[in-house]
């Protein structure tokens, strides 16, 4: 009461003795207002509000910290023997988190039970908080904004910086957790949706409270006079439009329009929010924090993007690039990058072809290896691009035009005519010729075998491309942690597995030479490498024939080195098994010829026990296949492909955790990639 004594009825204030429900009793010149306000504060104090924003921040910081600890632990782990208890506990945990809901619902959700659990916890946390303490409206609207509204506003304040942090391609959460921005994007969208739901909950009491007190007229007056009510409505409308244009239905059909509108509405959102919250306590702090994070994201991206210096010509026009048409609407793109540009297996980049559009850039997985991992050859960045209806179709069309240089800038003379230059086909000291295939009893078989599909034709188009990246998961070196690696690809999803296939095979070859790491550690623990690739047509093998043959050759060479066992893994050969599943049934003869064709190109004996290829028809039955492919020690299964395949595989891997529990394997880990967000 002390703070209000100055307003006491010292000079005969006519409003002082009005009753609480008198519409004129609206401020501190009325005693009933003062008493009512204080009563209301006793029931629910304004001091509680900031806690909601802080709790939200703590919740997400704790979640990020948890994932960061897991990530650091994974990076530091050497893949050696852990405690049986830990392995079994992890297996039980994975039995649950890997599992996915089957059927249409599962395909639409496209998430594992592990992800679903985190979403459910986060949703319960956010949606319970504003309601848990009750007291949604103040006794009178004039005593202050409804507590339910303010709590929601505080939760929104806490969520906003996190939502913005998750939006950047180079962002702090990715750096701390090793999770690619592409995977975190689902959280950016989820948090944006939560913010939207909270804005609705925030808005409703703001409509009910004035109408309850002064009827429609009071609400209309507020709209006409109240800055916050007007700015709030405009903010809500612009946010609704931003969300509506971000939903998959719109985004998938009009991606370029979505990108433009998203930036436009985001700028509008910040402008209207600043207008809406100016003068509020606490909320502006979170708003400025969000703006700071946004600017930080831009700067980090700009620095990252320009970290390698290029010549002026390359900066303006892009790198020399060749396009090659492959069957099944696939285009193979080879970009000649400077040696300074490096990437790791599993990463992707954004490519723009100024000859098509200077503004469009699209993400694609990098199939080739870069300089530190290449044994020889140019630092070519290879992309396999499946044509849809927009940019990718324009690239495919460009590749079909007669070979000419659309930029009028002749590419470097060293530019490969066909992208086969992207991988060296020989290893120092092990010339290819020494591994020509032999077919016992059929001395000249190679001459009589007709390839099952056309050999690559010289349909190569030269152009130029800008590369932005690489981006993507910060994978620890898999070959140092896992003894068995299985790559599972469906259709064009093979692009996620191919760089790993070539990389691990090349590591096997290096390890066979007895080379060790800086601290004497093994360079490659992986002993069994499998590829399971489902394709519709047999001739889709051509998408990846260079990588497949490269890997076969490397594994064959790895097993011919006398030093193979120098790293202590005595008696264990390096093994590669490529299993191709073709759904549009080819004839047996066609399949046989395709297999022999791969062996021939790889220069590998068809009876080589270590580098094997098989082609089967139909879809793979993962539950039946995987147990025979797994190593007794640590296993990693990497997958990318259609959602239905992901569901099948994830449920099989969840089931296979029983092998760890029964001590038939030390670990079976699963990692899924997705083309999109
Ligand atoms: C991390 C990542 C890696 C990828 N790797 C490959 C790959 O190796 N090979 C491959 O063939 N495809 C890959 N994709 C998919 C590829 O980016 C899209 O197919 C391509 O951008 C479609 O362009 P478009 O204009 O022809 O699309 P449209 O015909 O307009 O649309 C086809 C689909 O692509 C989506 N899409 C369109 N533009 C983009 C964009 N800029 N970013 C993300 N999605 C978009 C649309 O939402 C729609 O679902 C990858 C996607 C991501 C996110």
Automatic annotation (TrEMBL):
One of its GO terms (biological process) is iron ion transport. One of its GO terms (molecular function) is ferric-chelate reductase (NADPH) activity. The chain crosses the membrane at residues 52-72, 116-136, 148-170, 190-211, 231-250, 257-275, 287-304. It catalyses: 2 a Fe(II)-siderophore + NADP(+) + H(+) = 2 a Fe(III)-siderophore + NADPH. InterPro entries: FAD-bd_8, FAD-bd_FR_type, Fe3_Rdtase_TM_dom, Fe_red_NAD-bd_6, Ferric/Cupric_Reductase, FNR_nucleotide-bd, Riboflavin_synthase-like_b-brl. The keyword GTP-binding does not apply. SUPFAM superfamilies: Ferredoxin reductase-like, C-terminal NADP-linked domain, Riboflavin synthase domain-like. Residues 405-441 are annotated as: Disordered. It comes from the Eukaryota. Keywords: Cell membrane, Electron transport, Ion transport, Membrane, Oxidoreductase, Transmembrane, Transmembrane helix, Transport. It is an enzyme of class 1 (oxidoreductase). Residues 313-477 form the FAD-binding FR-type domain. CDD domains: NOX_Duox_like_FAD_NADP (cd06186). Residues 417-441 have a biased composition (Polar residues). GO terms for cellular component: plasma membrane. It is found in: Cell membrane. PANTHER family: FERRIC-CHELATE REDUCTASE, FERRIC/CUPRIC REDUCTASE TRANSMEMBRANE COMPONENT. This is ferric-chelate reductase (NADPH).
């Amino acid at each position: 009461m002390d703070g209000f004594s100055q307003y006491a009825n010292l000079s005969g204030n006519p409003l002082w003795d009005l009753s609480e429900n008198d519409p004129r009793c609206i401020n501190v010149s009325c005693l009933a207002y003062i008493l009512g306000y204080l009563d209301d504060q006793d029931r629910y104090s304004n001091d509680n509000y900031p806690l909601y924003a802080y709790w939200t921040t703590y919740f997400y910081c704790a979640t990020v910290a948890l994932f960061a600890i897991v990530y650091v632990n994974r990076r530091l782990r050497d893949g050696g023997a852990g405690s049986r208890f830990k392995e079994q506990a992890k297996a039980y945990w994975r039995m649950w988190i890997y599992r996915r809901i089957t059927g249409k619902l599962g395909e639409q959700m496209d998430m594992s039970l592990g992800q679903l659990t985190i979403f459910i916890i986060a949703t319960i946390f956010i949606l319970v908080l504003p309601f848990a303490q009750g007291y949604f409206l103040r006794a009178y609207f004039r005593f202050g904004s409804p507590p339910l509204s303010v709590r929601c506003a505080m939760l929104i304040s806490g969520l906003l910086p996190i939502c913005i942090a998750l939006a950047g391609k180079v962002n702090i959460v990715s750096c701390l957790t090793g999770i690619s921005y592409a995977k975190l994007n689902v959280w950016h969208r989820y948090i944006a949706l939560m913010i939207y739901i909270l804005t609705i909950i925030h808005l409703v009491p703001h409509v009910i409270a004035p109408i309850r007190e002064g009827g429609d007229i009071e609400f209309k007056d507020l709209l006409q006079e109240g800055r916050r009510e007007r700015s709030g409505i405009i903010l809500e409308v612009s946010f609704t439009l931003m969300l509506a244009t971000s939903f998959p239905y719109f985004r998938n059909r009009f991606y370029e329009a979505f990108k433009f509108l998203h930036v436009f509405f985001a700028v509008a959102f910040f402008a209207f929010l600043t207008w809406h919250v100016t003068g509020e306590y606490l909320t502006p702090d979170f708003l400025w924090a969000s703006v700071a994070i946004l600017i930080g994201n831009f700067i980090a991206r700009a620095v990252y993007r320009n970290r390698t210096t290029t010549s002026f010509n390359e900066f303006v026009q892009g790198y020399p690039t060749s396009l090659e048409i492959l069957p099944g609407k696939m285009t193979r793109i080879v970009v000649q990058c400077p040696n300074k540009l490096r990437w790791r297996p599993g990463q992707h980049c954004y490519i723009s072809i100024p000859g098509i559009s200077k503004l469009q850039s699209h993400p694609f997985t990098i199939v080739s290896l870069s300089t530190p991992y290449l044994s020889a050859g140019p630092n070519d960045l290879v992309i396999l691009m499946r044509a849809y209806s927009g940019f990718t179709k324009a690239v495919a069309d460009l590749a079909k035009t007669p070979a000419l240089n659309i930029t009028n800038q002749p590419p470097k003379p060293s530019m490969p005519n066909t992208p086969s230059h992207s991988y060296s086909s020989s290893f120092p000291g092990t010339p290819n010729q020494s591994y020509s295939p032999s077919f016992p009893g059929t001395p000249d078989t190679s001459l009589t075998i007709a390839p099952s599909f056309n050999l690559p034709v010289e349909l190569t188009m030269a152009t130029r491309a800008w590369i932005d990246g690489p981006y993507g998961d910060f994978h620890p070196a898999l070959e140092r942690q896992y003894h068995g690696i299985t790559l599972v690809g469906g259709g064009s999803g093979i692009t996620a597995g191919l760089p790993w296939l070539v990389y691990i095979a090349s590591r096997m070859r290096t390890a066979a030479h007895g080379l060790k790491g800086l601290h004497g550690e093994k360079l490659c623990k992986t002993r069994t490498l499998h590829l399971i690739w489902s394709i519709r047509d047999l001739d889709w093998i051509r998408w990846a024939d260079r990588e497949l043959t490269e890997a076969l050759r490397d594994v064959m060479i790895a097993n011919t080195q006398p030093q193979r066992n120098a790293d202590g893994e005595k008696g264990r050969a390096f093994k590669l098994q490529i299993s191709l599943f073709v759904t549009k049934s080819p004839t047996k003869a066609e399949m046989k010829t395709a297999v022999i064709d791969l062996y021939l190109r790889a220069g590998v004996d068809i009876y080589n026990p270590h580098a094997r290829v098989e082609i089967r028809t139909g879809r793979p039955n993962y539950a039946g296949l995987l147990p025979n492919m797994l190593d007794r020690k640590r296993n990693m299964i990497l997958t990318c492909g259609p959602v239905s395949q992901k569901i099948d595989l994830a449920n099989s891997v969840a089931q296979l955790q029983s092998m760890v529990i029964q001590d038939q394997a030390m670990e079976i880990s699963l990692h899924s990639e997705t083309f999109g967000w």
